[in-house]
From TrEMBL:
It holds the Pfam family Patatin. A motif (GXGXXG) lies at residues 13-18. SUPFAM superfamilies: FabD/lysophospholipase-like. A motif (DGA/G) lies at residues 179-181. This is Patatin-like phospholipase family protein. InterPro entries: Acyl_Trfase/lysoPLipase (IPR016035), NTE (IPR050301), PNPLA_dom (IPR002641). Residues 9-192 form the PNPLA domain. Keywords: Hydrolase, Lipid degradation, Lipid metabolism. The active site is at S42 (nucleophile), D179 (proton acceptor). A motif (GXSXG) lies at residues 40-44. PANTHER family: BLR7027 PROTEIN, NEUROPATHY TARGET ESTERASE/SWISS CHEESE D.MELANOGASTER. It comes from Hydrogenoanaerobacterium saccharovorans.
C-alpha cells in the first residue's frame, strides 16, 4: 500500500539571496502545489515562517521593498548610491562588527515581530522546523515548532538568521545563538524527521555548511540558480526583483514546464532550435576538432577536450549533441549579456543574439589571426599572444573567436589558428559555434550575421 505523500519544502540560508525562495513559492502557488513540511535555516527560516502562515502577498511586498535601511540600523539606502557613500557605509558596518560584535538589525527585527503570527504557525497543519547554532559549543539546535517555547518563535527565527560576525549573536534564556548555517544551511534531514517523504530543496549556494549526503531514501528535487545571486548583504531592489524572477523560472524548468538550462524558453522552443541547428552544430564540432595533419593533432585534441568541459552541464549530465548545442547557444547569450530573468522564444532569443553581436566591435580579427598563425609556427610567442587575449573582456574575445571560427569553417583562415584560440578560451569557442550557425541561417531572414575574417 502506498504511503501518503508528505511534500517538504527546504529553504536554505543566504541573506539577501532569499528573494529567490519567494520566486520558488510563486511557482508552487501557480501550480497549486502545497507543502506539508517546511524547514529553513537563516533567511530560509524567516521565509519558511511566512510560507507556513500563508502570508504570500506580504512576503512579495516585503522583498520588493527590501533595502539596506529596511534590514540594518545606522544604514540608509541612499548611502549606496555613490562610491563615497558605499565606502562610508561599509566603514560604519566594520566599526560595528569590531566594536560591538556585529551590526544591529533593528528594522528587520521589528518587521519580523510585527508580521509574525505565531499562533497561526502553531495551528497550521504544516510541520515547521528551523536550525540555529548554540555557542560557544557550536551545537546545532534543530527545533520543530513544538520545541520552541510559547511566545519565543520570533526570537528563535532571528537567532537562526544571526549571521555572526556580520550581525550580532542572539541571546535567549541566557544562551547565545548564531546563524544555523554554521551547521546545516539546507536542513533536509530535519524535513525528513518531520515526516517529509518528497522534498523540494532550495539551495541558495551561499556560505554555510551543507552536510554532504550522496543519496537520500526519498526523492529530493534541488532548485538552484546558474546565476550569481549576489553577496548575502546586497539588499539592492533591482537585484532582489531579479532573484525572485530567477527563482520562479528555475522552479518551472526543474518541473519541466519551461525549457533551458541557464536561460528559460517556452516549452518546445529548444526543440525548434535543435531541429534547425543540430546537424550544423555536429558538423562544426567535428570539423574544428579534426587535425589537418600530425603537426596540428595536439591543437585539435586540446580543443576537443576543452570544449567537452565547457559544454558539460552539471556534474551528472553527459554530453550529447543536443546538450552541446543548447550550451553553445546559452554561452553565447551569457557572453553577450542577455537577460536571464525572462522567458524566450527561439526567434526572440536568436534576434537578441544577432542584435547584440552586431554592435560595433573595435577589435580586428585579422590581426589576431595573424598572431595565432605565429603561435602555430613559433610556440614561444604563445605567452605574449594569449596575454593579449586575456586582457580583453569575454565579449571582445567572443567577437574575435567567432570570426576565426567563421574563417576556419569557410576555408579562409587556417584551422590551427581557430583551434589554438578555442583551446585557450573554450567558452568563447563554444558560443562562437552557435553564432556561426546563425550566420549561416538566421531566423530573421536577414543577411548572414558573420562574414569571413580577413587576413
Amino acid at each position: 500500500m502506498r504511503s501518503m505523500l508528505n511534500r517538504g519544502l527546504v529553504l536554505g540560508g543566504g541573506g539577501s539571496r532569499g528573494a529567490y525562495e519567494i520566486g520558488v513559492w510563486r511557482a508552487a502557488r501557480e501550480l497549486k502545489i502545497d507543502f506539508d513540511v517546511v524547514t529553513g535555516t537563516s533567511i530560509g527560516a524567516l521565509n519558511g515562517a511566512l510560507v507556513v502562515q500563508g502570508d504570500y502577498d506580504f512576503a512579495v511586498d516585503m522583498w520588493e521593498n527590501m533595502n539596506y535601511e529596511a534590514v540594518m540600523t545606522n544604514v540608509k539606502a541612499e548611502d549606496f548610491t555613490t562610491l563615497d557613500g558605499t565606502r562610508k557605509a561599509f566603514r560604519t558596518a566594520l566599526r560595528e562588527i569590531v566594536a560591538d560584535g556585529g551590526m544591529e538589525i533593528g528594522p528587520l527585527e521589528e518587521l519580523v515581530r510585527s508580521r509574525l503570527d505565531e499562533e497561526k504557525i502553531r495551528q497550521s497543519p504544516k510541520e515547521f522546523g528551523i536550525v540555529t547554532v548554540e555557542i560557544p559549543s557550536l551545537k546545532a539546535s534543530e527545533m520543530a515548532k513544538e520545541d520552541i517555547p510559547q511566545g519565543q518563535m520570533a526570537d528563535y527565527l532571528l537567532a537562526s538568521a544571526a549571521c555572526y560576525p556580520a550581525f550580532k549573536r542572539r541571546t535567549i534564556d541566557n544562551k547565545s545563538y548564531v546563524d544555523g548555517g554554521y551547521r546545516d544551511n539546507l536542513p533536509i534531514d530535519l524535513a525528513i524527521e518531520l515526516g517529509a517523504n518528497e522534498i523540494w530543496a532550495v539551495d541558495l549556494q551561499a556560505l554555510g555548511h551543507v552536510p554532504q549526503k550522496l543519496m537520500y531514501d526519498i526523492p529530493v528535487r534541488y532548485i538552484r540558480s546558474y546565476w550569481d545571486l549576489g553577496m548575502f548583504i546586497t539588499f539592492d531592489p533591482a537585484r532582489i526583483r531579479r532573484n525572485m524572477e530567477l527563482g520562479y523560472l528555475d522552479t518551472m524548468k526543474t518541473l519541466g514546464l519551461l525549457d533551458g538550462f541557464a536561460y528559460s524558453f517556452r516549452e518546445g522552443q529548444m526543440a525548434r532550435i535543435c531541429d534547425r541547428f543540430l546537424e550544423g552544430s555536429e558538423r562544426a564540432m567535428k570539423a574544428l576538432t579534426t587535425a589537418e595533419n600530425p603537426l596540428t593533432a595536439p591543437a585539435a585534441a586540446a580543443l576537443e577536450l576543452r570544449l567537452s568541459g565547457a559544454l558539460k552541464w552539471g556534474a551528472r549530465r553527459r554530453n550529447s549533441v543536443k546538450v552541446n548545442l543548447m550550451r553553445q547557444a546559452e554561452l553565447a547569450a551569457e557572453l553577450l549579456d542577455l537577460d536571464p530573468a525572462c522567458i524566450y522564444t527561439a526567434e526572440r532569443f536568436n534576434e537578441e543574439l544577432i542584435r547584440r553581436f552586431s554592435e560595433e566591435d573595435s577589435h580586428q580579427p585579422g590581426e589576431m589571426e595573424q598572431a595565432l598563425r605565429r603561435v602555430h609556427e613559433n610556440p614561444s610567442t604563445a605567452s605574449e599572444i594569449f596575454g593579449r587575449f586575456k586582457s580583453m573582456t569575454g565579449r571582445e574575445r567572443l567577437h574575435i573567436v567567432t570570426h576565426l571560427v567563421y574563417g576556419a569553417l569557410s576555408g579562409s583562415v587556417p584551422m590551427p589558428a581557430a583551434q589554438l584560440a578555442g583551446a585557450a578560451f573554450p567558452r568563447e569557442m563554444s558560443a562562437a559555434i552557435y553564432l556561426w550557425l546563425l550566420g549561416c541561417s538566421t531566423d530573421t531572414g536577414e543577411e548572414p550575421l558573420l562574414r569571413p575574417a580577413q587576413a
